[in-house]
Each structure stands twice: as structure tokens, then as C-alpha cells.
Specification:
- Helices cover 40% and strands 26% of the residues of chain A.
- With 419 residues, chain A is of the alpha/beta class.
- The first copy, chain A, folds into 3 domains: 175 residues, Molybdenum Cofactor Biosythetic Enzyme, Chain A; 79 residues, 2-Layer Sandwich (Alpha-Beta Plaits), CATH 3.30.70; 153 residues, Maf protein, CATH 3.90.950.20.
- A 6-stranded mixed sheet of chain A has the order 2-1-3-8-7-6, with helices on both faces. Chain A has a 5-stranded mixed sheet with strand order 14-13-15-16-17, sandwiched between helices.
- In chain A, α2 packs parallel to α6, α3 crosses α4 and α10 packs parallel to α15.
- Chain A is elongated, with a radius of gyration of 26 Å.
- Chains A and B meet through α2, β2, α3, α11 and β14 of A and α2, β2, α3, β10 and α11 of B.
- β14 of chain A pairs antiparallel with β14 of chain B, so a sheet runs across the interface.
């Protein structure tokens, strides 16, 4: 099924917001087997939006997904544009109006008069319930030159768009595929894309017909998505599981999870399963590890807290790092990293201590310790472990890579302890 | 000048990376007066890319900016596509080859054989030096139906794309405008878009001809961009400065800076100018304030460090918050916030203490203190100040809003002290 994505909004065109919807939709549509040919952003003009839908149709797009411009204000013109492209009038629907009004009232608010337009839909279009907002989505179908075409219209507010896609649109697209599309995503940390691809070269080359493998790298992590397309669901599932399990077998502990898990959530779960609590001493990461660990709801049961020690005095006063050690070895050293991890553990009453000290840059490097030099340390009372890493000259990149590497160090150490 | 932006790359279409280039270019092109009509992403196929350029041309685009697909690998086909769209052959240029080869050698590397293609350009195109990478940009011009058209081609790597735009492309586009386009951007924190627009309604309504005002909101901050278009540079500058200064006058201390400044960099600079150092005690923000302050190079001269106190024990042990206070008032309270700020200041030897305590959510709220309740506190020894805020039910949003509000609280307090 070929697809075309149309994002509507002056604010996207003007760069006032980044189009994260396009990335999310691109990935999700690929997973359900849509072959996205173009992704296009246009401004809030009826003629321009309708023209873009007509052009996608002329290009043979079997699916057009339109996001944005479904709100109640005068610059929300997507309903009118879709009606024009399909040459069907807009109709006011009482049942949509009632649902929208009830939603406002459930929140103790009165529906504004301008909200009435959200109850309009082009004749023949199905309204899709919006679980997270007022404006319903729309699903329309037609025949063009003997080919069937689906046009899906959803709000631009990301969590509303996602909710409608996940509840209605994606499952329905899966049903409409000729056959089935299934996928599994393995999450890895600790190796780059080229190392990973070298490790699993045999499995990747030996994938049976109908299976494909995609690498999705980000800072310090690589996701591997295996997709199976076939006629028989059972056979596709069997092939997918066999291939994914084989890759997982080769990668071993490089894989930290599957699907939409995050490294920080996995680490928190591992701590919880082992009845452990963690404390962090951060120097070069400046609070980024703590921010990531606490971004997961429920972190308070496994995370005591942290000390961001940006000065030698703080390392000494709050983490009990001996000034003589800093003097002798330097603040960026194995000895100081280990002392910080031990200090965080002791001072915050934690089972596990994690520490970072390094030169984030862009300045502050020396020949021995260039910018990007980072020491990580782990201490759980029984085991002490320190690792030296060498990253880039970019401050933000170094912080992100150090943060991922530190969380992965904890994960690897916890794997050695029974859950 | 009407414009069309074309992003090339399967990885963008598949959602493997977010197209931040489109937002950056959208904003910069708007600043220099380009009226961007469409922004489009297509895959790595010669015919599809050439077709998109032809379609933009048919739509009358005076400027087409193409990003991506200029590297040395087999899926980098943008050079060939542009040559096809312009119906001009590619030629190998010795001077480009020498520059690319010298760049590799300056880094102690040998230019790979596949790198030769980066020295090719369509006949008649000007090569634009890439200050940050190997592949040069391209600038081509032609007449189409009596109208002149410019096609600019730049790499997709963000810092390379930006460098070429800023060095060559944007200045040249400014020169080509009929007249001049100038802009100033005011950065505000502490009020939402609707409050700001109500405050400056008179100034906005009274903008002279040729001046426009755009609101660029993000979490906790609103940027106001004033743009002046005119024939006479001096007159445009005078109008722009008068209008912007008038708006700045009304908004007063809501404005924290101009241009590309950040709130964290402004706070760090204010601390530095006053010879002060700051320490932070974070509960609900979980390290996000520290991460933001330390994202600015040179933070170590004004930032002692922080304690992320996720448990009551840590608040007591490392920040000297009296357990009786927590018992009596609750961890999310004015008294605890103030005690945390004082504790951070004292224990880290700082001049200024900043603290947050709140219920980030999505769970943990009570009728008295619903999810999104946040206390912020500031303590510089002379002045103690606490603020209660009520945000949303979304954890990530609450952390981001609390972080911005906390930094803005420090800024406002420091404004009262002489620099």
C-alpha cells in the first residue's frame, strides 16, 4: 500500500515547531507495511491542502494521511479542504456535536460557539473518536481510476493524533494489507551500528523471504526492527520469532529490551526486581542521568537521589572523596570516579552507587585527558567497577553518550546479580 | 520570494530521524523574507527528487532549497537528480577534488575512492564551500518562463547545512530581496502566549506598514519575532528598533534576552556578573535544572552542584531539612522548599540556593495537592522567596515547566541585585 503524508500548519512551515508527528507516523506506517512515498507540509489554506491531496491521488497514493487543522479556529481549514478534494459537502452531525459538548462539560467547561465546526464532516466520511481531545478524526474512501483510496484525517496535537492512530487507524490498515505485517524491535546499547551489523551479518544475510531488517541508531543505542510480511499470519509469526530470537541469541546482553522500552525504565525495573535502590554522583553529566532515571514514573521506589558535584569541594564535602586523591590523580580519574560512586552509595543510603567524571568540553582538555574523556564507576558494596571512555568534542553529545553508557553499566552489573 | 523546501532521505521518510533541518530552515528562510509554500520529504531516488524540483518549478517557486543526499555513498543521488531537473550534465571539478582531498589529509585520513563523486557538480552550478564537512553545497540559477529561479543544494548533516546557509546562502538571499528584511527576536518567560498578546495589543495593532509580529511559544517561554521589510535599510532598522523597543518597554522584565540566547545561559551570565555561585536542591525536577544549567559551557564557574533529593531521608541528611517540618507540612510545601534552598546553599557553599518540590505525576496527587503542584524556593542569604505553581497532569511537561519557572525565579531575584 503506497502512502502519502500531509502535515498542515503554517507553524510547521515557519519552523515554529518541529514536525515530530511526521517521524512518528513514518515509523508506525512503515511497521504496518505502508510504503510512504512522500511527506509534505503545507500552510493553512483550503486550496493548497486540497491541491496536495489531489496531487497525492494523481501520484497513485492508496493512502493519504492528513494531520492538523481540525481545531475550532478560523485557520483550521482541513475539513473544508478534504471536502473540496473529495467534492463532497460538509454536513453537521448531531451525534458528534453531543459528544464534543459532553467532553467540554465533563471538564466543567462550556463548549464555545466556535467549537460547533468540529462536529462537521464531509458526507460519507466516518468520524473517528478522539480519546484525548475534542476534534474527531475522519476516515474517507473512494474509487479513483479503478483504484481504491483511503484518506485519514487526524488532529495535529501529537497525543491526540497518536491515540486515534493506535486505536483505529493502524489496526484497520493492518487488516487491509494483502496478508499480514508483523514486526519486533530489539533495543541494544553499548555498540555502534557497524559493530552490530558485523556481529549479526550471518543472521541478516540468512533472513528468509518476506523478512527485512532495519537499523535505527541514536546516541549510544541502536534499535533493530525485524519485519515479516506474508500471507499466513501463523507462518509470518513463526519466521519473525525465529529470526528475531536468532539475532537476540547472537547479541546476548547487548539487547536490553524490546519494543518501546527505554534503558532508564529497564534499569529501574531491574533495581526493583532485586530490591535495590540507587544513588548517583554526577560530574560531567551534570544531572542528566538523574533526570533520565526520574523521567520514569515510580522512580522514587528505586532512586534515592543524587549529588551533582561540579566542584572539588562538593566532591569532598558531600561525597567524601579525599582531597588528596583529587590532588594526586586529578578530578577525572579512576580513583575519583570510584570514590564518588562509593560516596553516593554511603551518603544517600543506597545499595548501588553510580558515578561519572569527565571533560564534557568544548574546552578543558589536556594531552593526557582530551575533551571527551569520561570515567564511569559502579559500586554495589560487593563489586566495584570503573570504565574509561573516549567520546567526541561536542558537549551535548558527550553528556548524552555518557548518560547512556552509565545506565548501561548499571544494567550489565545487575545482570550478574540474581533478581 | 516564494520558496520550496525539499528534504531528501529514506531515513526521514521512515521516521528513523526527526526532520529538525526543516524547522531550522523554515525559521531562517522566513527571517530573510522567503515565503515558504511547501516543505516536502522524498526518498533517495533520482527520478523522485528531480520530479519534486520540477513540480516546485511548475508551482512558480523562485527558490528551491534541497537538503540531503550529497554524501559519497550509492544512495546519495541528489547531485544526479538536480542535474536531471536542470537538464545539465555533471562535471568533475579538479579544484573541488583537491579541496576535499586536502580536508581528509588534514585529519590524517586518506580520501576513499568513493569520495570522488563529491567533486562533481552540474555544469553552470557554483560550488559552496562546506566549512564543516567534505561535500560542497551547490548554487544554480536559471530562467523559467521568464522568471528567475535559484536552486540551492546543501548536505543533510545539520551542522554542515547550517554552516553553508549562514556563510553563503542566507546573506545572498538577503541581498536579492527587493529591499531589506531585518528582524529582532525578544525572549520571554513567565507568561503564556495569550497573556503576552493581551499586554502588547496596542503595540501589535499599531505596527507600521512593513512590520510583522510572530509568536513562537514553547514550554514556559514565548519568543516574539518582529520583522521589518522595506526598501531603505536605515528606515527599516529605525522602524524595527522603535517597535521592538516599545514592546520590550511594555513587557519589562518578562523579557530575558534577545536572539538566540537561552534562559540558562542568561542566568549563568547574571550570576557571573554578580560574582555569585548557585547550588540547587531538586525533588520533582529530578536533575533537569542541573542538566540545563550545566549544558552551558563554563557553568563550573557559577554552579557548585546540586542535590537531587528524591527521598525524605536525603532531604534531611544532605540538605538539613528537619524531619519534623516534612512530617508537619508534607514534602511538597513552602516550608520544605525554603528549607531545601537554604540547605543547598549552606551544604554546597553557594551564594544562591534554588529548590523544587512537587508532584510531577502522573500519580501521587491529593485533593489539596493535585498532580502538577510545585513549590519553588530561592534563597540568597538576604532574600528568601517561595512560589506555588499549578501545572498539568503530564510528568514530562511538569518537569519542563518547573525547570523553566525555577530558572526564571532566579533571574527575577538577581535583577534586584546590582551587577
Amino acid at each position: 500500500m503506497t502512502g502519502h503524508l500531509l502535515t498542515v500548519g503554517d507553524e510547521i512551515l515557519l519552523g515554529q515547531i518541529v514536525n515530530t508527528n511526521a517521524a512518528w507516523l513514518g515509523e508506525r506506517l512503515a511497521e504496518v507495511g505502508v510504503d510512504l512515498r512522500r511527506s509534505e507540509t503545507v500552510g493553512d489554506e483550503v486550496g493548497v491542502i486540497a491541491g496536495a491531496i489531489e496531487r497525492a491521488t494523481a501520484d497513485g497514493a492508496a493512502l493519504v494521511v492528513v494531520t492538523g487543522g481540525l481545531g475550532p479556529t478560523h485557520d483550521d481549514v482541513t475539513r473544508a479542504a478534504v471536502a473540496q478534494a473529495f467534492d463532497r459537502p460538509l454536513e453537521f452531525r448531531d451525534e458528534l456535536f453531543e459528544r464534543i459538548r459532553a467532553r467540554y462539560e465533563a471538564r466543567g467547561r462550556t463548549m464555545p460557539e466556535i467549537g460547533r465546526v468540529m462536529a462537521e464532516a464531509p458526507v460519507g466520511f466516518e468520524a473517528l473518536v478522539n480519546p484525548k481531545g475534542s476534534a474527531p478524526g475522519l476516515w474517507g474512501e473512494r474509487e479513483v481510476d479503478g483504484r481504491s483510496q483511503v484518506v485519514v484525517v487526524v488532529p495535529g496535537v501529537p497525543h491526540e493524533m497518536r491515540a486515534i492512530l493506535e486505536s483505529f487507524v493502524l489496526p484497520r490498515l493492518v487488516e487491509r494489507q494483502d496478508g499480514v505485517v508483523l514486526s519486533r524491535t530489539l533495543l541494544t546499547a553499548g555498540k555502534g551500528e557497524s559493530d552490530i551489523s558485523a556481529l549479526i551479518a550471518e543472521q541478516a544475510d540468512g533472513l528468509p523471504d518476506g523478512l527485512t531488517l532495519a537499523y535505527l541508531p541514536s546516541l549510544g543505542e541502536v534499535r533493530l526492527r525485524v519485519t515479516a510480511r506474508g500471507v499466513d499470519r501463523e507462518a509470518a509469526r513463526r519466521d519473525l520469532d525465529a529470526a528475531t530470537d536468532a539475532i537476540r541469541g547472537v547479541l546476548g546482553t547487548l539487547v536490553f529490551g524490546e519494543g518501546t522500552a527505554t534503558l532508564e525504565a529497564v534499569v529501574n525495573d531491574m533495581l526493583r526486581e532485586r530490591g535495590l535502590r540507587m544513588a548517583v554522583a554526577e560530574s560531567c553529566t551534570g544531572g542528566a542521568i538523574s533526570a533520565r532515571v526520574t523521567s520514569v514514573s515510580g522512580a522514587s521506589s528505586v532512586f534515592c537521589g543524587s549529588v551533582v558535584a561540579y566542584s572539588n569541594e562538593t566532591k569532598a564535602d558531600l561525597l567524601d572523596v579525599a582531597p588528596a586523591t583529587i590532588e594526586a590523580e586529578g578530578a577525572v580519574s579512576e580513583a575519583v570516579a570510584l570514590a564518588m560512586a562509593a560516596g553516593a552509595r554511603a551518603r544517600l543510603g543506597a545499595d548501588v552507587g553510580l558515578a561519572t567524571t569527565g571533560i564534557a568540553g568544548p574546552t578543558g582538555g589536556t594531552p593526557d585527558k582530551p575533551v571527551g574523556t569520561v570515567w564511569l564507576a559502579y559500586d554495589d558494596g560487593d563489586t566495584q567497577r570503573a570504565v574509561r571512555l573516549q567520546f567526541t568534542t561536542d558537549r551535548a553529545v558527550n553528556v548524552a553518550l555518557s548518560t547512556t553508557a552509565a545506565l548501561d553499566l548499571v544494567r550489565r552489573q545487575l545482570l550478574r546479580r540474581p533478581a
